[in-house]
Amino acid sequence: MEPITAHIVHAFDIHGTGGNPAAVILDANGLTPGKKQEIAKNIGLSETAFISKSSVADFRLEFFTPTKQIAHCGHATIASFSLLRKKGLVQGDRSSKETIEGNRDIIFEGEKVFMEQAPPEFTRLGTLEDKVFEALGITRHELADGLVPMKVDTGNAFVVVPLKSVDQLANLTPDSNAIIELSKHLGLIGLYPFVLPHDGNADARSRMFAPYYGIPEEAATGMAAGPLACYLYSQVQSKDNFVIKQGEFMKEPSPSQIHVHLTLGNGAIKNLFAGGTAYTSKQLEWFSKP
């Protein structure tokens, strides 16, 4: 029996440190969905990517958290294509992935890998805003001036929550059960609170909580940074490039940096690409029971 090899690749790192680790299985042909879920649970990282052959794109990617399959995953996509390119399995500056919700383009810019996301869908929360505040342990008075939470979906849905200060972001006390109920009700991956820094090093500093998918907190979330960049374009600053920092306020900090490029036309976002660099830290091998 051939061993299953999982490459642990840290995506959205900063100069070779930090980032968000994903497990990447390069040859997932023949693995059943149940076996993939078992492997993802045993590895225990926030996401595991399974790469297999595709007849409609360069590769088929499937993503599993420790508890569920999800349609898209930013850091696991960046991890996968960074690894594929370093192993010489991708040539040129473009590639593509097949997912359970259709195909997405991949672009390489130097050492960075960028993944395509869909145009944003914005939904105001109305009376559900109070449920968001309760879930994060905050009050309405802690929101950034003139901004409100909003559900934003570019393939995965998140509620972005604008806060006034870095201290508020760092000292959040999220209620996992409340976030799970909100996620079920609104069809979310999780909550994405953020602040607007004034040091010029990034456009936002953020955290991501997704307990419904077995992720208490994540170091870098490309599929949340995309929605946040769209929100910032819509509500804060009309530009087409954003830098989002994440991971610095976790119990075990893992600072990460996500770049987002928006494609604009007639003042609207046509599509977007989120990306960054990645590095491989180790390999895991084991023999899986049939």
TrEMBL record:
Keyword Isomerase: yes
Molecular functions per Gene Ontology: isomerase activity
Entry GO terms, CC: cytoplasm
InterPro entries associated with the record: Phenazine_PhzF-like
Residues annotated as the enzyme's active site: 47
Coiled coil spans: none
This protein's UniProt keywords: Isomerase
Keyword Isomerase belongs to the record: yes
Similarity comment: Belongs to the PhzF family.
PANTHER family cross-referenced by the UniProt entry: BIOSYNTHESIS PROTEIN, PUTATIVE-RELATED (PTHR13774:SF39), PHENAZINE BIOSYNTHESIS PROTEIN (PTHR13774)
Name by which UniProt lists this protein: PhzF family phenazine biosynthesis isomerase
